[in-house]
Design goal:
Blueprint: E1 2-6, H1 11-16, H2 18-27, E2 32-38, E3 53-57, H3 59-63, H4 65-77, E4 82-85, H5 90-98, E5 103-108, E6 119-122, H6 130-134, H7 156-168, E7 177-181, H8 193-206, E8 210-213, H9 220-227, E9 236-237, H10 245-253, E10 257-261, H11 264-272, E11 276-279, H12 286-289, E12 297-300, H13 302-306, H14 310-322, H15 324-328, H16 333-347
Parallel strand pairs: 1-2, 1-4, 2-3, 4-5, 5-6, 7-8, 7-10, 8-9, 10-11, 11-12
């Protein structure tokens, strides 16, 4: 059986959707499973046992309708038996329909494009829940073994190279290392910089640890400016440039804990296998976006800041979205530290002061 899974979104969505491929592999071990993603994030899925071929859409194919049509024709010629569209927007719905696959699955969003699928599944609603992605499998004519984990498969040499780069920056491989991600590609997801500085200073002065601050394209100067406000600059590095997503994954794997905003690096860190602590922006709920609830992956959101339950958060989400800057400052460093402290104590046993 030949299967195509379509997930044309950014890093987090594509990683959280990987369990769909893993569930299909668990159920149909001999099937060919291809994963269609944006070109710039495709390297994250290399060497993964649940994915036979990582297919891509390039920026040019996204902009040029003719080239997009040629990609659709290429997929049609592949003669897939099953195509699953996890995005359900007009371009992917048309792609799924044009594939001519006998089995076609998409979400029913109550719009015309949902009628293009041979089978549509009730849309699970807003949010990034891993279970929401897996719900599309209910539309298949057979039972599927659901697998809820996702990971990035790294090679030994990738880890060796990154370890050498860390050593060159005087980072000890024997000391707990916190990976800080203070800047998000979407500015609306950035916890205030002065708060982040206070958090980093607390971690460095209360625990015998070392830190690394990471940045993405166009973010370096902001991170360097934040780094200049750190009380103990010798214990934190801002000099390790990750030139690819796989390098970011390798760096994450070698760290003890990720602490940062809700952005792509957070998902890369989780998929690399390390614990994460996420500071969510006011209109985002940790209940939807922490797919592995438990001691390894925790976070703080408006429910914690205002001491409200998830139902009340849903009722007020419009207010949080309209006054995001105001409400972001309700998530104070004291609240974050209180939630983070037990996790640090567990991970860095014997290093607290």
């Amino acid at each position: 059986m030949k299967i195509l899974v379509i997930r044309l979104k950014q890093i987090g969505d594509a990683l959280i959707s990987l369990p769909v491929c893993k569930s299909l592999r668990s159920t149909l071990p001999d099937a060919q499973i291809d994963y269609l993603v944006y070109e710039h994030i495709a390297p994250l899925f290399l060497h993964h046992p649940a994915v036979d071929n990582v297919l891509t859409i390039s920026p040019e194919e996204r902009r040029n309708r003719w080239k997009y049509f040629l990609k659709m024709r290429e997929l049609r010629r592949a003669r897939y038996d099953l195509v699953i569209d996890l995005l359900t927007v007009p371009v992917t719905a048309l792609m799924t329909r044009y594939s001519a696959a006998p089995l076609q699955l998409g979400f029913d969003k109550g719009k015309w494009r949902s009628k293009l699928y041979k089978t549509s599944v009730p849309h699970p609603g807003a949010g990034g829940s891993l279970d929401a992605k897996l719900s599309i499998l209910t539309g298949l004519p057979f039972e599927v073994n659901r697998v809820r984990s996702f990971e990035i498969v790294l090679k030994d040499e990738e880890l060796s190279d990154m370890r050498a780069r860390m050593t060159a920056q005087n980072l000890s491989p024997d000391k707990p290392t916190l990976l800080f991600s203070p800047i998000s590609r979407l500015g609306s997801k950035n916890w205030p910089g002065d708060f982040f500085t206070e958090l980093i200073n607390h971690c460095l002065t209360h625990f015998d640890i070392q830190g690394i601050m990471i940045w993405g394209p166009g973010e370096r100067e902001d991170v360097l400016a934040l780094g200049r406000r750190i009380d103990v600059p010798t214990r934190i590095s801002t000099s390790i440039e990750t030139r690819s997503l796989r390098e970011l994954a390798a760096l994450s794997r070698l760290c003890t804990l990720f602490i940062g905003n809700d952005s792509g690096p957070r998902h890369v860190a989780e998929a690399s296998g390390i614990p994460t602590f996420t500071i969510f922006s006011p209109p985002i709920s940790k209940f939807a976006w922490i797919p592995h609830r438990g001691p390894r992956h925790r976070g703080v959101d408006m429910c914690d800041a205002l001491d409200i339950d998830e139902r009340t958060w849903h009722q007020r989400v419009g207010e949080f979205r309209q006054n995001q800057h105001f409400f972001y400052r309700k998530i104070t460093p004291e609240i974050v530290i209180k939630r983070l402290q037990p996790m640090l104590a567990e991970l860095i046993t014997g290093h607290s002061t």
